[in-house]
Amino acid sequence: WGRALLVTGLLAVVVAGLLWWRSRPPDLYTTELRLAVMPLENKAHFDRALVTEGMTDVVYHVLERASREHDSMWVVPNRLVKYADLGEVAQARGAFGVNRIVTGGLQRFEGGEALLLFLRDAETLEQLETVRVPFDPATRAFRDSLPGALVELIGLDPSRAPGQLRYYLPGGGAATTSYLAGLGALRIQNYA
Questions:
Q1: Are strands 127-135 and 112-121 parallel, antiparallel or unpaired?
Q2: Total Cβ atoms within 10 A of residue 20
C-alpha cells in the first residue's frame, strides 16, 4: 500500500512539473537587427563638414523610419550616439548593445563626391555590406537614391521601403546641400 502511494506521488510530481514547464512564459523577444549610426566622416572637402554632419542625421532618420517596416529592428537614437562621443567604433557594441554599426562618410572620387556607407558587425567590425550614393549638389540623384541604398545596406526588401523615406530631403540639389548644412550646424550646436 505504501509503495503504490509513493509511485502515485512521484507520478503526480512529474505531471505537475511537465504542466508547469509547458505553461511557462515564452523566452524574451530578441531583436534581430540592433543598429547604431556612427558620425559620418568628411573626406571630401573641408567646406563639406556641415553637410556631412547633416548626412549623419538624415541617414539615422531614414533608418529609423525603415525600422518601422522591419519586423525586428531598432536604431539607437542619434543624440545618444553623439553624446556618448565614443573614442572607437568598437565601443558601440558595449555602449549601446547593438549588433550592427553603420560607418562611412562623404568622400571624393574620380568624377565627383559620394556618400560611402558600410554596415559592420559590431563584435568583429567585419564589413558586411557597402553602398555608394553619388552626391552631386546640382541634381536630385542623392535625394532620390539614398533611401533605397540604405534599405539595401541593412538587407531589407526594397519593395517594403515606404515611399515617403525620400522626402527627408528637399527637392533640388542646391536645396538639399543647404538643408544638410543647416542640419549639420544644428547638430554641432545642440551637441557641443
A1: antiparallel
A2: 9
